Amino acid sequence: MKVDVSLPNTKLDYLTYDTNLKLQVGDLVSVPLRNKIQNGIVVQTGTQRDVGYLKPVKELVAAAFISPALL
To answer: Do 11 and 18 touch, CB atoms closer than 8 A?
Structure first.
């Protein structure tokens, strides 16, 4: 499954990652960004965008970290 993750301090609105985890909008996850691991918020699940190689989500840090209504 592909998920879009919003990351702080980046110029992009979100980046797309691959995962086998059952993630929901609002979950806090750890993802690779360049040469380090950074936390971000899942803003969309099941993305249909056609992106080449996708890096995997490393781990779920906190489920339902922020409510979808606040996003």
So the answer is: no
Instruction: Tell me if 11 sits within 8 A of 32, measured CB to CB.
Output: no
Neighbour count for residue 70 (Cβ, 10 Å): 7
Gap between the Cα atoms of 53 and 71, Å rounded: 27
10 contacts: CB under 8 Å, gap ≥ 6: 33
Per-residue confidence at 68, pLDDT binned at 50, 70, 90?
Answer: confident
pLDDT at 48 (0 to 100): 86
Phi, psi of 14 (to 5 degrees): -160, 165
Which residues are paired to 56 by β-bridges?
A: 18
Q: Kindly tell me if the per-residue pLDDT of 12 is higher than 90.
A: no
